[in-house]
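Researcher: Going back to the complex we discussed earlier. I've cleaned up the inputs and rechecked each line, so this should be the final set. Can you rerun the prediction on the complete assembly and write out the structure?
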Amino acid sequence: MTGASKSLEAELRRPLSESDEARMLWRARAKMLATSLRQSLAGSRLRVSLVIVLSLVFWYGLFRLFHSGFEFLSTTIDHPVTHAQTVQAIYNVFFASLMMMLVFSSGIILYGGLYCSSEAEFLLTTPVRPERIVLHKFQEAIVFSSWGFLLLGSPMLVAYGLQANAPWYYFVLLLPFMAAFVYIPGGIGAIVCMLFVHRVARLHGHLRTVIALFAILAVGLIGWSFLGKTEGNLLTPLWFQEMLGRLEFSEHRLLPSWWLSSGLLEAARTRDNGSDRAAWAESLLFLSLLISNALFFRVVAVWIGARIYRISYSELRTERARRRPSKDAWIDRLIMFCTRPLPIGMRLLIVKDLRLFRRDPAQWSQFIIFFGLLTLYFANIRRFSYDVNYMAWVNMISFLNLAVVGLILSTFTTRFIFPMLSLEGRRFWILCMLPIERDTILWAKFLFAAAGSAIPCCLLILLSDVMLQISPLVVAIHQLTCILLCLGLSGIAVGLGAKMPDLREESPSKIAAGFGGTLSLVISAIYIVLVVLLTALPSHFYLAAIQSDVDPFWVRTWLVGGICSACLAGLMATVVPMQIGRNAFRTLEL
Amino acid sequence: MIQFENVTRKYGTKTAVADLNLEIPSGQLFAFLGPNGAGKTTTIKMIVGLLRPSSGTIRLCGHDVTANNGAANRLLGYVPDVPYLYDKLSGSEFLHFIAEMYAMEPQSAARKISEQIEAFQLQDFVEDLTESYSHGMKQRLAFAAAMLHDPKVLVIDEPMVGLDPKSVRLVKDLLRAKAAAGQTIFMSTHLLPIAEEIADRVGIVDQGRLRFLGTLDQLRERLATDETSLEQLYLNFTAGDQAAQKDLVASSAREPLPKQGAGS
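Model: Rerun complete. Updated structure for the full complex:
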């Protein structure tokens, strides 16, 4: 071996320093981001512009909402101390809720990044340190999980700052506060994720199920303790006291959310008696607290990752898949029976999609969370039914509930239904092999989505109406509206999914987060608002007319007209996108 | 050199690799054969550190893969059956990324990258984003990346899948040249003619156990057959009875290691 090659060999065997390793990964990431941005600006300026405009509209809408809310508080509660306490309570609860959300979302995203991604598998076969891989994916998880927090939190914080005439440094400190805060639940989520995989992955399947059930029960009981029935009626002083009492947990001095809200409110405190130095210093104190704890959790997460990531990665692949029974599940047989009038190809595709759905925990767990929370909420609105003087209020609540169910459903159809055809396209060899038309595939997706969403949604709305003791007429209107929503949202998601597929991406969440998914979500939201208003407004006036013993003829006409218009909107929302999607899918090259 | 000492890997109650004892010296091209589900990919994943053995030890040039993974990976080049590339990096950027990862100095990295681009004929597309590559182009880039840092051990899972005939010839010649230069090459493949042409030694694994270890001539001799193709020998072997297979393993373990060179 020559001297030159000996020296090359020597230099190749030394490890890269930690800082060089970090720089290397950041450089690669920066290059990829720059390339993606360049491609987006070069190839799809309209899309980029639309995303930016819609985001700004959404942000501004939230800002106006929060600003009006803070103005209302300011005029309603003129006592300065009470006003300050109320704002503090709002901040505390808001950020405590977001903190919980961030812990879960960052943990789930990190799980996918560390244990299920091709990049992690690639990096594990290279000399990159395992803790560096953990940090690399942790940073991604923070970014992906926190954008929602920033989108929801920033309009509220800016609105309060403007309404309270906060000093300039309040606005300057917003970003550092939010960035430091986000790191803490992200770090907690990362630690919990790695420890959970390391410990629970080794356990027997049944024991894992028992642990999961206990965890769900515990969360449910905790949630019920906050949302359960109160002694006082709604919006009375007693009710306020009770709710504030239940929300005291959010004021715990050890909660990062409390540090965030306290630090920002100190920064927002206007000059008082000519001196605001103490408030400014207090604010920086809380910021330092957040930063130091963020760094602490980061260090702990990296330390844990260095010790257990590689082991837990291997352990996760130890459990052998359980042997499945050879016969069809009862639900598959039921679906085949119920869909007998349909062509056999369509029936088989529906059964296949149902199997994929229930075998993917990421899908059905989110489904359960979405609709479980709604069930909890509806079960808690019983008290409205006992006071007939609030009938108009009750009816309004019932339609708001309908809108909420619709909005939740729209996130579900965007997240799970919209990417279905893109993912089907990746398995193009199956499509080419099957003796079925592409239209059959499209309609099978639509029926799967519509039927799958109509059953839980109609039941939920029925629960809400029973709890509110709504009149049978309104119940019937609600059920019809619910069906229209399910059909329309399914049509929008499936049609747009076929029109704007993303065949390269293998992650459904990334497909849904793209331009097509965003457009689907926006159109779905507009459709929900339109349909609910078309049925809610005339219903409200019709019932008011009946209660007031006024001849409801013109209101009845309006009601019928509203229902017919809603049906027409539902038909358009179903047929038009499906037609667009069908034309696109027929000519799609795979 | 790769050393397996009593290596076992289990998935629950199923044993994917059972008590594997094997040594592959430097300068040898070893072909690992076996039916689907035999344990080939599991073995490869244990070598590269993705999976830990349930028991036993794997060493790369003396470094325990489990205990000293960083040092072992620095000596290793790995080409998986489906290579992972960053979609938004060009081939050239990816090679620079790999060079940086292995702590190569910029000047020597640039030189080595040029050599690999030349060797694998990547000039036509190396500046394009990898998202536009066909499978064969990705495979060639993965080879170039794996060989960039002159690894002592090269592990390849299904090397020829997706390659056109010209590329297949290119890779075969390169692998033989690397083995002759002293690299240890561990190759898993279903393409028996490839293994027949370039492998120094062959291992046949079935149901997690190493059933045969030796050269083609030894396999032919033990099966007492005039068959010349590895494909037919392999099919005969895997169709044979268990007692015969036990004999083969026992007797091949007593055989001295063959001299370097294909089929020797």
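Model: Worth noting: Residues 277-316 of chain A form the longest helix (40 residues).
Researcher: Good, that matches what I expected from the previous run.
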